[in-house]
Amino acid sequence: MLLEETKLFNKQYKETIKEALDVLGKKNLALIMQGVSFPSLKDENTGFGTYNSQGAKELFNYITGIFNAVQLGPCGKTKMSDSSPYTGTVFSKNPLFINLKELTTSKWDKILSQKTLDKIIQNNPNKGTNKAAYVYAIENLEIASNEFYNNFKKSTNKPLKKAFDNFVKENGFWLEKDSLYEALSIENKSDYWPQWENELDKTLFAAKDKSAAEKRIKEITKKYKDVIEKYKLEQFIVQEQSAQTLKYAQKLGIKLIADRQVAFSDRDNWAYQSLFLEGWCLGCPPDYFSEDGQAWGFSVVNPEKLFNKDGSLGEAGILLKKLYTKMFKENPGGVRIDHTVGLIDPWVYKKGSLPKIEEGAGRLYSSPNHPELKKYSIAKEENINKTPIEGKFVTADDEKWIDNLSDEQVGLYGRMIEKIVIASAKDAGLDKNAIIAEDLGTLTYPVVRVMEKYGLQGMKLVQFVVPQEEIHPYRCKNITPNSWTMVGTHDNEPIRMWASKLVNTQEANPYIKNLIEDLCSEFGNKDEIWHKMYTDEKFFAFMKLVECFASKSQNIQIFFTDFFGINEVYNTPGTSGDPNWTLRLNDNFIELYKDKLKSEEALNLPLAMIYALKARGWDFYKNHQELLEKLEKLVNEK
Q1: HSE of 537 in the Cβ direction (CA atoms, 13 Å)?
Q2: What is the reported pLDDT for 387?
Q3: Given 30, 141, 322, 474, which residue has the most CB atoms within 10 angstroms?
């Protein structure tokens, strides 16, 4: 499809929406679109979405001029048994994001046959649906990669071979370990290293007998040369295609924002196991949603390996600096830092236990009285406001038991932010505004102080507002300009599904009361609007989206389900299996949006702009009559 045919509506539409966003003080409007969810072109659906596909380019064409950014999910390699991108590798990209169609062209020396590609497309079990076929995609990628690897070896394309050699050389510090893991998984008949039969293989890069480890590495490298080289080729291809996708998006004025997950994959844990704190895991404390806390099982970086005594980067700090620098250089549009709290004031618990205080859990840097964690504690006893309940410190909503810190202590809490994250952004020619700090969950005093010290852009989820709290930070009137605001993330229900559970119930009243006060204070028909929100889930959901635009937040993100009106869940936290991480945007998404707009399920942007402008007050409304008239004309035309 031609670029002109897929742009969102017409020039006037785009210019009017852009004008409204500017008037409302919005610098960024981003569509949240994780890799697997991208659509395919007709008859090119291999069973898995990718931001490198022609379908992705069609989506970029469609949204350009309205959205100026796309928030991607983590792009690391995932396991057959776990499709969550948040447990993928931190350096290697997911080869499922390879655009196989492109490999059939002369650009890639036709290293994949059209016949093989056609077979994969034709046999896709989820063809014609909006769901990925995860296992099918992995199995058929293996078939395709065997073919394109063998053809690449035979290729006489010197520029392509030279580019591959340069890639391997430049990325050797992580690529050698990641590709070796692939070979060892075959050798030990499992891609989960704790189950490997060979004990030496489990600790090759943390072995006491260095000589034996080196000998074993040489042995495996020789035995599985093709496996290792194929892995490297896959990484080269997906890296090259990703770089081209970035250029394409930038040409359209769209920034691509990366997502740095807090977890490390099995592959990373094996490669860098000497850098992690033995016997401890990262999680979340008990709270309103989980009385036992959240036992993520993620590795915890050893504080003594992060920084040396003189404050310089230790072995782990150097590794993370390389990781973040790589991410910012590859993603100049910015990086979303998942669970920023875990970088500043992480909650850790003993492996095999629940993440509860009575079972030994605590804040890694805020537990001066903990028998095992006190040596890492930045906070001292004098910083603690002791609030014992039945002999235990309070967790859940009252977990903020530090209430004062010196500037020096705040600097120590913020070391990873300053010396690794911000420093990496600077190395890539960016500043702190390239960082989106996912600061959801319990914000302890140290986290708040560090966020303030470095002026980090946090996140505000209006779906999670506590409506009874007048000063709740997720309420429209309280949202600060220096933030990213959205109705929900990849872990939330679509806003209409949320609204459907509240309409026609008393539970909806406090939410509606807030929306009336913050958005409709000068409307003459407030009773009518109240009734419509109370009884109409579509309108209730619409007003929650308006709340984002009406707020003072300069940056807005919209999950693709909420924009296109897809009333399906992408991921349900605490559950596993095929329903999660498989939802995609329909291949016929242009027709889908038009249909959903007519049924008032998709986001009507001109109408949302009108409500957001009116929410700013009568004087503001009077000063922008011409803009409002243009917006009303667009609403009437659609």
Answers
A1: 16
A2: 54
A3: 30
* CB 230, CB 146: distance < 8 Å: yes
Q: Per mean pLDDT, which of 35-39, 293-297, 391-395 is the most reliable?
A: 35-39
CA 554 – CA 218 distance, rounded (Å): 54
Q: What is the mean pLDDT of the chain?
A: 94
* The token pair that represents 512 in the structure block: 């509606």
CA-CA distance, 337 to 296, in Å (whole number)? 17
- Looking up tokens 């034709």 gives 122
Tokens representing 164 are 């591959």
**Single-letter amino acid code for the residue at 115:** K
Write down the number of H helices and E strands in the chain: 27, 14
Distances (CA, A) of 128 to 125, 144, 581: 9, 22, 18
CA atoms within 13 A on the CB side of 508: 23
103 neighbors 155 (Cβ within 8 angstroms)? no
Could you give the CA distance from residue 472 to residue 168 in angstroms, rounded to a whole number?
A: 50
- The answer to whether the CB of 135 falls within 8 A of the CB of 80 is yes
Q: Which two tokens stand for residue 223?
A: 């035995």
What pLDDT score was predicted for residue 545? 98
What DSSP string runs through 516-552?
HHHH-TT-TTHHHHHHHHHH-HHHHHHHHHHHHHHSS
Q: Are strands 276-284 and 294-301 parallel, antiparallel or unpaired?
A: antiparallel
Cα(56)–Cα(41) distance, rounded to whole angstroms?
8
Contacts of residue 87, Cβ cutoff 8 Å, sequence gap at least 6: 78, 79, 261, 263, 265
DSSP 258-283: EEE-S---HHHHHHTGGGEEEEEEEE
Residue type, 352: G
pLDDT at 6 over 60: no
Residues in the chain: 638
HSE, side-chain direction, 13 A CA sphere, residue 4 = 0
